[in-house]
Amino acid sequence: MPEVQAQIMVRGRVQRVNYRASLQQVALALGVTGWVRNRADGTVEAVLQGSPEAVQAVIDWAWVGPRNAQVVDLTKEWISPAAVIAGFNVLD
Hints:
By secondary structure, the chain is of the alpha+beta class. The chain is 24% helix and 40% strand.
């Protein structure tokens, strides 16, 4: 079982700026599993699983995002992992 799981919602200019693929790269480099997707309201949603330090590092990165992103708000919720998520997927 992973140590922690967090769900984040990122608002701002975060779609069409390579945000999801960049978040996936950062998460994989830090050993974090989960998924990320665009939402119809223009936000990006992600679920992150891993060690507390690694998950927090991805969240810290998510506040900045890739070069063309402009993050204006990020909310996070720590949730109890229900099951292990394998890999890190970019969802449609």
